Please model this.
Amino acid sequence: MEKKWEEMTPDEKQEARFQKWLSPEGVKFASPEAEKLYKERATRIKDAIQMKKKPDRVPVLLIPSFFPAFYSGLTPRDVMYDYEKANNAWKKFYVDFQPDAHFGCVAPGPGRFFDILDYKLYKWPGHGVPNNITYQCNEGEYMKADEYEAFLQDPTHFFNTTVMPRIFGALEPFKQLPNVTTINEMYGTGIIFYPYGLPDVQTAFKALLEAGSEALKWLGYFMAFEKEMPALGFPSGQAGYTKAPYDILGDTLRGTRGIMADMYRQPEKLIEAMDKMTPFWIQKGIIESNMNSNPLIFLPLHKGADGFMSDEQYKKFYWPYLKKLLLGLIDAGVVPFLWAEGGSNSRLEVIQDLPKGKTVWLFDAVDMIKAKEILGDVACIAGNMPMDLLTIGTPQQVKDYAKKLIDNCGEGGGYIIANCAFFDDVKPENVRTMVEFTKEYGVYK
Model:
């Protein structure tokens, strides 16, 4: 008798998710060759993640930012406002370079959606930066130092009436919205709802509905891409994303300076807030894995890098809540695909405290020999082809570096070669060399 999901072990759940990914439901492959490539690629990545000793070769991944736009002769603004152009550019990129997985065409984002809501968190092409430049974050304290208590008391109401009005100019009137958790008996219910009748609140809701329609339009193109790429032989390298609790607060709520001050001035509130939000972000990863029949959930890691905090602070503020999030995903059979942006050399000893074969760590500026020595029996490691080589290097320099990575990290499996950071306007010949050399040289004997 087949086991029920709740009766499965984490190993069994992970295997069940991988099997759905290996045999995608409803996909009509473009050709027998496309089906063969899909299964080979997905199996190759699965074997690397599960640290199998005899995969066929080192997998190679390309995770771009706006490079597909530049490669197709387009600007970042072009692909943010013309979703069909974005789809075509990203499809051309993956078909031309033939990596072992695709990572969707979500990077540009829906430009008109940001226009409608007057988005404040970023500058984007035509809105604060030139059309040929990618977006930039506007650092700020969108949650104030004295607002932890309001956040902890009711996170949803706090986001609706405090955060949303600050990061979307069109939703500024939402700060007047009532806390609907106080709805109870008939008496007084009408009073609770009166803010929804205010003209500026209604105008804000109209903007929200218009933005929702634009997001749905954009999502239609994105999902069409997600359906087409497996048919062409490319498994998806991610089902969705989640984030480390410290980064959630530090990236776009408290800001870098704000959260660093909180570690000294109100550490208990910071810890309580991270603990509060962790279950929400575990659930986010599980839901997106379920929706897309894909075990891989992407986690970009930002503010736990070397130099952002001391080792003691990392062990107190960053790792415990990231680990709790990772174990929550792992328990559900989800595979966290972590991208450790920046340096992580001082973190390697700490992050080895995880179950074997359950995570992928893509490293940016890390001593990969050291990473292999410390994590080689615990986790699949990935990366770290440098951006300077892809941008101004030569194909021979790319080959030399790829050879060093494969020689030092590929032995015994458990390694995926990939770019160390999102890439934009790099040399196409260097990207092609990285892929082709890996396929030739990275074969396991």
